[in-house]
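Batch manifest line 400
LIGAND: fe (ii) ion
JOB: complex structure
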Amino acid sequence: MSDAGLLARRPGRSLPQAAYTDPQVFAADLEHVWAAGWLFAGHSCELAGTGDYLALDVGRDRVLVVRGDDGALHAHHDVCAHRGSRLTTADHGHVRAFVCPYHQWVYRLDGRLRSARLMGEDFPVSSYRLAPVAVREIEGLVFVCLAQDPPDVDAFAAALTPQLAPHRLADTRIAARLDYRVAANWKTLVENNRECYHCRGSHPEFTLSNFDLGVNGDVRSDPRYEAALSRARARWERRGLPSEEVSFPGRSWYRIQRLPLRDGFVTESLDGRPVAPLLGELTDADAGSLRVVGLPNLWAHANCDYAVTTRLSPVEAGVTDVEVCFLVRADAHDDDIDIDALTAVWRSTSEQDWELCENNYAGIASRGYRPGPLSPVVEASVEAFLSWYVTTIERGRTAL
Ligand code: FES
Ligand SMILES: [Fe+2]
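JOB STATUS: finished
ARTIFACT:
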């Protein structure tokens, strides 16, 4: 689609069809959105030991994040410096060194080439390495950036750290991991996440514990909700749990906010009771639900007892891979965790959302689609996301 196609977007409406379905727009998304900003890659707890690694696929790119001998995280393109083979096929694993499966070049965890067989006596081993990728660990979450000159991430880190620190995600373990392939454009999934217009009709488990308002971009006022929020914030602040709302400051890419749950619920469970021991430094189950959004590929909820993260990975215009992880404190015994109870709300909610997104995308891709009007009452955050997206693409194109 031409620039004019995207620029022709009418504010207050969903995007033109091609923005979701056209492979050229998808290529522009990868270039100007996905390769330009910070992406959520995974969790520190998956990378606890030297040689533990995880992979994040971003279109045709694949990033490896590994814990080095020095204890620091390193990120590399998964591309051999010989003739370009992938080094890994597994999405998580443990290695002493990365050995290319093609001709067995061996790389240290920090990416430097250690040995290259049959390359001749004078081969300058030290001149080769895996191409580095920027990586940053923030309160147990790991972010990478494919840009040569990554944008600032310190403001995000400064906003996230005090709010997420009490949950101590660095001291958790992944109790359950769910992988999905969703037949929809990545923006369809983000749009779905950015509104709760659909919650009442589609998420019976989620709406047990969650108010369906109070989300960013919902301008409805409800005295019962407002009162619950201000009472909860006063209690949290007294106990040292910060609750300042940080919603896409300066039209940036992140949001952090602690939200109250409905009466009788201390976590996002079916019966309102905790499904795991309290996380980190929390001494009281009354901690609400801390929401973290990072555009374009992260949303997470940190509750008193578990955290759930959702990571998007774009495959092609109409296909998005999703990884949903459930984290509990590292020293929680298996006997204390009922996996069905732990995953009940977010397994159902996620799967309901993927069905909605696939259904939405099928209509978007059809001959009958026209961009439709967004609700000024409950979809302002969808509008904000689409405006961020168009601005990001335009900025990237201008910079070329
Ligand atoms: S492509 Fe990796 S060793 Fe040849
Ligand atoms: Fe949803």
